[in-house]
Amino acid sequence: MTTPNLYELPAAADASAKKWCGGNLGGDNETCVTTVALADADAFIVGDSKPEGAGRQLRMTGAELDSFAIKWANSRGLAL
């Protein structure tokens, strides 16, 4: 099974953006990552809440995002 071009998929019809915030060094909206589920795939739009990041997207499959999160946490010495 091949992965569809994630940049061609729309957001899921019932999906709303989830904000993942932390640090709060520049205010609540300056330290957030947003995720929105894509339609018909285990995949997500990842965005930046900073005004400078508005409209920029990174799209990742669920497996890619999971792998990133685990490796990032391990590299930072964080326990999952």
Task: Provide tags for this entry.
80 residues, alpha+beta, 4-stranded antiparallel beta sheet, 1 helix
Biggest β-sheet strands, sense, barrel: 4 strands, antiparallel
Total count of strands = 4
Order of helices and strands: EEEEH
Could you say which structural class the secondary elements and strand pairing correspond to?
alpha+beta
Q: Count of helices?
A: 1
Shape: globular
Q: What spatial order of strands do you see in the largest sheet? A: 1-2-3-4
Q: Mean of the pLDDT scores?
A: 87
Structure description:
The chain is globular, with a radius of gyration of 14 Å. Strand 2 (32-37) and strand 3 form a beta hairpin. It is of the alpha+beta class. The protein has one helix and four strands. The N and C termini lie far apart (30 Å). It has a four-stranded antiparallel beta sheet with strand order 1-2-3-4. The chain has one helix at residues 62-75, and strands at residues 18-21, 32-37, 43-48, 58-61.
Summary?
The protein has 80 residues and is an alpha+beta fold.
Please specify the SSE layout and strand pairing:
Layout (H helix, E strand, L loop, with lengths): L17 E4 L10 E6 L5 E6 L9 E4 H14 L5
Antiparallel strand pairs: 1-2, 2-3, 3-4
